[in-house]
Amino acid sequence: MEEHFEFNPAYTLLTYSLSPGESINVEPGAMVAMGGVEMQTKSSGGGIFKSLKKALVGGESFFLNTFTAGPTGGWVSIAPGSPGDIKGFDVHPGRQLFIQGGSYLSSTTNVQTDTQFQGMKGFFSGESVFFVRAFVEGQAPGKVWYNSFGAIKQIPVQPGQTITVDTGHLVAFEDTVQYTINKVGGMKSLLVGGEGLVMNFTGQGNIWIQTRNVGSLASKLVPFLPTGN
What we know:
Elements: E1 2-6, E2 13-18, E3 23-26, E4 31-35, E5 37-43, H1 48-57, E6 63-69, E7 74-78, E8 86-91, E9 97-100, E10 104-107, E11 111-117, E12 130-136, E13 142-147, E14 152-157, E15 163-166, E16 170-174, E17 177-183, H2 187-192, E18 197-203, E19 205-210, H3 214-221
Antiparallel strand pairs: 1-2, 2-7, 3-6, 3-10, 4-7, 5-6, 8-13, 9-12, 9-16, 10-13, 11-12, 14-19, 15-18, 16-19, 17-18
């Protein structure tokens, strides 16, 4: 298939050009327009129980929409629900990509997704305690696309190096890096310094961050929301 990006990085629209019989899995609600394709809805995550786990604890949809091109080919345009960018990642056999909850957008049909628990440290991160894990079964590579709030920047992690990312700005990371969750400075900095908890990445691989933070936006909007009075 061919992919075409428009209006990035603020309001990215991704269009797939599909060959006859070719299919793509898409998160429900992401379709913007289509032509020459048929849509079928099915449970996500490789079975009803995995799909239920993704929906209940991972913050992802229970269903996926599969778009399949007709005999003359077709196309489908997709976009996330919030302003931001879209990036793709080639998933090779034996490798995994971890994506923050709510940022999975679409994938080739051979890509499997499930939820990965952060462990108890995730409860203190201020963000989702689950990541979406994308991987392939078999020997053929696949591809997954994810979205952000704001633009996306790739940061390489080199051996012996530590990269620190605010938990609200993390989008995705490769399985070749490891992380710990810590606070910036002391308890005073955590409470009144305007900075929350961070993730310290080590190893060798790539991480992807977003330039805006949904939690920060929400906190700025709270004073302007109507009250019960």
